[in-house]
Task: structure prediction
Amino acid sequence: RMSLEKKPGGFRSRAKGEKRAPAFGNRPMAPRPTRYQPGGDPRALGDVDLARAVAFDVLYRVNVEGTYANLALPKALTEYRLKRRDAAFATEITYGTLRVQGILDIVIAHCSSRPLDSIDPAVLGAIRLGAYQLLYTRVEPHAAVDSAVKIVAATGNEQAKGFANGILRKISRTTPEAWWEKLQPADELAAIAFRHAHPEWVAKSFEQALGGRDELGAALAADSERPIVHLVARPGEITAEELALMTGGDEGTYSPYAVYLPGGDPGRIDAVRDGLAAVQDEGSQLIARALTEAPLDGPDGGHWLDLCAGPGGKAALLGAIARIESATVDAVEIQPHRAKLVQQTVRDLPVTVHTMDGRNPSFEYQFDRVLVDAPCSGLGALRRRPEARWRKQESDIAQLAQLQYELLTSAINLTRPGGVIVYSTCSPDLRETRGVVNKALENHPVVELDAHPLVPNMENVGEGKSVQMWPHRHHTDAMFFAVLKKTPEKLG
Result:
């Protein structure tokens, strides 16, 4: 028996039992669920358009389940097959809502009869999504309000529809400019933080690292700009010039291995799939290269160490350079799952991965070059994770600085006299950068080398010997690194 299947221009025969081909991709979509569960299938949000439904679902996962938006959103866009325009809209309202969430909460709290912490998370998420559209986009107010209220009802909070509607209508009756004027703090620093949607303590941290407020607004604004993708051309495999020609990108400004990708999915690039290139911020490339270029006392024995290697980007670049220089790299990572990521990233390179604590690793020999890319607050990469600025707590800095100092101490002990240590963080906070380095200089047999010659084309990286990069100056993450040389004994 045969059945008929319609296709453009007529019908074709389909044998009994033959599966219908999916309309898109290689597999059919799962059936649409009839009831939405927060953090579930966004298609169950009734007649809410799919772009807003996906955005709301990702917001819920981020704020309630602790998911990372830069992982959850691309997966959802693919899974639910949003087309280009809808995908762009979902991306804008998801990342935008997360970037300014603290400011949205100030406005919502002003309009709410209840404290925000007493509002159901799904209801609050829908209100935030609607408020973002009202205050930061050109979406028609009725569309922003109506869709948010529908989301509230679809999450099982039918009784909260009037509450959400009232808040959003109140927000819509005042212009964004009037809201900012009304709610902006009187204190100058707090006002700058408010205008650029950052916690005040983060703005203060940046101000101290910049040495004043002249560039503070620009530095904070850069955290809300989407960074372009940086690729690294693996030395010995492919040159940056070749990679740029293959991808249609531009060669980097500072790193000899960097290529700026104009757009598209880097995972589809043949060179990336084949392991000849990878996605890596240009600042990270410069730090790994600096370790290999820093001057030693005596010959380089070819024993290099990456003490905090996960997820493996710098270890892979070090391994590629080490292969050219007939050196070897030991890579240490304390978390087993991250150690596996390192192992996958450095395959076929002269890198040995160890799962151990970098504060007390079991090596019986010393190294010529040691990299300490220490765990940090990540304040230098806020543009890559829109929710991060509101998740970070200043109270975490002291604990992180202690861990960083312990790791740097371990690195110094593992370095031979005359060898070098590069200490780096993806944070400009002085407590994580100069504070840790200065403490090591006071207590250990090391001297600081001038790191500026190791980034010869990069200007305005700080007045001292260390290097501080900034997105608004260099279009890298706000990365810091200092170079220390081990002395035979403590000087002074």
User: Anything to note?
Assistant: The longest strand covers residues 415-425.
